[in-house]
Amino acid sequence: MVEEELDETIHWLEIIAESEMIPANKLLGLQQEAHELYKIIVSSIVTTRNRLAKEV
């Protein structure tokens, strides 16, 4: 669920940047942070799934 929410957030930040509602340079930090969080979450999900698979 967190992965999906972050993906949607990234999507909307891209739409806002492309629409120029807010200058792209003001969104850059938020976009970078969202991408970093996404990588961390995906990595955690993969690690957890691998550990659970080993336990079965």
Which helices and strands appear, and what pairs or packs with what?
Layout (H helix, E strand, L loop, with lengths): L1 H18 L4 H32 L1
Helix pairs in contact: 1-2
InterPro entries: 23S_rRNA-intervening_sequence, 23S_rRNA_IVS_sf
Protein name: Four helix bundle family protein
The profile of the biggest β sheet is: none
Gyration radius (Cα, Å) is 15 Å
What is the N-to-C order of secondary-structure elements (H for helix, E for strand)?
A: HH
Low-confidence stretches: none
Share of helix among residues? over 70%
> Helical segment tally?
2
- The pLDDT mean sits at 94
**Structural classification:** mainly alpha
Total count of strands: 0
First-last Cα distance? 23 Å
Question: Which term fits the overall shape?
Answer: elongated
How does this model look, in words?
- The chain is mainly α.
- The chain has one domain (2-55).
- Helix content is 89%, strand content 0%.
- The chain has two helices and no strands.
- Helix 1 (2-19) runs antiparallel to helix 2 (24-55).
- It is elongated, with a radius of gyration of 15 Å.
- It starts with a helix and ends with a helix.
- The model has no long low-confidence stretch (mean pLDDT 94).
- This is Four helix bundle family protein.
- It comes from Bacteroides uniformis str. 3978 T3 ii.
- InterPro entries: 23S_rRNA-intervening_sequence, 23S_rRNA_IVS_sf.
Brief overview, please?
It contains 2 helices and no strands.
Main attributes?
single chain; 56 residues; mainly alpha
